[in-house]
Specification:
Blueprint (H helix, E strand, L loop, with lengths): L7 E3 L9 H5 L5 E4 L2 E4 L9 H5 L5 E3 L3 H9 L4 E5 L3 H4 L5 H10 L4 E4 H18 L3 E4 L4 H10 L13 H13 L4 E6 L4 H7 L6 E4 H10 L31 H6 L9 E6 L1 H8 L10 E7 L18 H10 L31 H10 L19 H9 L9 H18 L4 E5 L4 E4 L1 H7 L2 H4 L21 H9 L3 E8 L2 E11 L3 E8 L1 H32 L1 H18 L8 E3 L8
Parallel strand pairs: 5-6, 5-8, 7-11, 8-9, 10-11
Antiparallel strand pairs: 1-4, 2-3, 12-13, 12-16, 14-15, 14-17, 15-16
The structure holds iron/sulfur cluster (SF4) (3 copies).
Amino acid sequence: MSDREYPLYTIKNNCVDCYKCVRRCPVKAIKIEDGSAQIVPDLCIACGTCYRVCPAKAKQPRNDLTRAKHLIESGKDVYVSLAPSWIAEFDGLPAEKMIASLRRLGFRGVGETAAGAEEVSAHIACLLGEKESGLLISTACPAVVEYVRKYLPEMTPHLTPLSSPLLAHCRMLKDKLGKDIEVVFVGPCIAKKLEADAHPELLSLSLSFGDIRQWFREAGIFPEEIRTSVYDKFVMTKAEEGTAYPIEGGMIETVKPYTAARNAYMMQVSGIQNIKRELAGLKAENFDRPVFIECLACHGGCVAGPCMSNRSAGFDKRLNILKNSNFSDRAGKRELQADISLQYGEKAVKDKEFGEAEIKRALAVIGKYGVEDELNCGGCGYDTCRNFARAMLSGKAEPEMCVSNMKQQAQRKANALLRCIPSPIVIADSRLNIIEYNDKFAETFWSEAEHGEIYERNDLRGADLRDFIDFTNLFSASLDLEQDIRREHVRFGDRLFDVVVFNIDKKQIVGGIIQDVTKMEMKKERIAEKAKDVIRKNLATVQQIACTLGEHMAETEILLRSIAEDYAGGESESSVEKPIKSYEDDK
Ligand code: SF4
Ligand code: SF4
Ligand code: SF4
């Protein structure tokens, strides 16, 4: 399967290697490859979490919009199965206008997925009525079904042997309108693309609300303004209590009214991590009555699905859904209409086992040589260093993902650089406390007599920089102005320094390279003196020659003088700061 055939993919060039998707993926179905975070379809459950959290929009759902347009253009009768969460997405839009807008796109008609939900609830009630005890896990959410089949295979036999509300609705539409019709789902879910891929005979495509908004825009359709007609009604009957499905607990509310379900305990849980925690280790044989568990991958339910414009499951959204749900006399009394039975087999993901020696070798690569080095900080996306080591051994992770190791490596490199630079270097924070320095700095500015009682020469970190040099105004100015500053010939005691102060972290950290140029200056002065002496001694001769050779030699003298001045020079510039960038004011 190519990258873009799976319901989600990574736009490699957008990926900034932040590993946020790795950290948040509940099943660690992402591997780092060629510098970007790739989804591993065999491990993925299509929950859409990575799509939600990626700050660079590098994770995207497969775009099925073009295929949907082609389907319409093919002249087939294409119907929409509209998710009940549309009420929360298109807040305040009357159903007729939504239907009219979709029909204007070319769809033959629009049905409510919630009608399939009502069918599912009736079947669940029957199943619960037939049981004296045992466990049924809902199969309304395809991401949960995928999760259970892949990661909780021992729970797979407890998956309710029914198709999802969407597939049930597709079957009902086909039963009613003909086997040849095509059905396209429109909703907030990425996992529904898995259902379309697995059951093309029932569901042709799955589009998101975002896709539909885009299609409306491209077609110049404004749903709020569209004119409606008597034909703008949901096909088959209008759904009632089934419209409560997209909120957590909504499914249970629709099963409860059935007499057959009275004996059952019903509970709900949402969010894959919560489902993992609640279902793992559950002992169905301990239940003395039938237990039904409604599981939804998105926290709060489909109203918080990954393709909702607003992904919160706040009270306002839930209220909106509840207001639209109609628990009429038919709730709890519906007859079974269609055969929606579906068996789910295991798809267990088998983790490769690694020996202790292999794990230790992998840990050593990231600088973890003993238990005390294993910080288990989670920065890499894995909850323990050992799990990260296993991921490296499986080819899913790279050593660079270990933040603590990278930090230590960076520190080691910085220290090595500091050591090998022959000039004094110091790094200070915004309060001018020393963060780092090299031996040359201590050698140059630390003195037993002056600092011995307060600071140890071997550890000046945390010391006040002002106790060692008196030109810290350059450091303060660099911090304030967020600019690098260079000043030549700074006098400190009987020595001269060329100082470069550079920003490391804006307003927070500055570094300074302080080059002792005293000897160099003395050398220059001596050369200048000698040059002047030569000039003095030979002046008469030069003048004579100048008389002879005229202006040309006079220029030579000027040149000689200028060289001498250059060597002696610098004093006149010593008070001039030279901004490296555009420093204007030394505060
Ligand atoms: S979240 Fe994942 S896909 Fe997005 S930029 Fe970060 S590493 Fe790349
Ligand atoms: S869709 Fe879910 S399971 Fe798949 S990679 Fe993204 S976060 Fe992981
Ligand atoms: S909770 Fe709803 S939106 Fe979220 S994955 Fe499941 S079916 Fe899709």
